[in-house]
Amino acid sequence: MYTIELEDEELRLLRSALGSYLQAFGHNEADLLRAAKHLMVKLPDPAAAANVS
Questions:
Q1: HEC-encoded secondary structure of the chain
Q2: CA distance linking residue 21 with residue 5, whole number of Å
Q3: Closest Cα partner for 41 from 7, 13, 18?
Q4: Can you say how many angstroms the Cα of residue 9 is from the centroid of all Cα atoms in its chain?
Q5: To 10 degrees, what angle do helices 30-42 and 8-23 make?
Q6: Which end of the chain, N or C, is surrounded by fewer C-beta atoms within 10 Å?
Q7: How many Å apart are CA 27 and CA 42, to the nearest integer?
Q8: pLDDT above 90: percentage of residues in the chain
């Protein structure tokens, strides 16, 4: 297991990049779509974290 620390802007960039990556795949890459969606679920939402304070 790895742990990385990201600033809010870095997290937004990562979520955006992963979202674009997801949109680029077609039906032939179902395994990659599942893996990418699983990763997206694990990423926190920086907007939600900002509202906790």
A1: CCCCCCCHHHHHHHHHHHHHHHHCCCHHHHHHHHHHHHHHHHCCCHHHHHHHC
A2: 22
A3: 18
A4: 13
A5: 160
A6: N
A7: 23
A8: 26
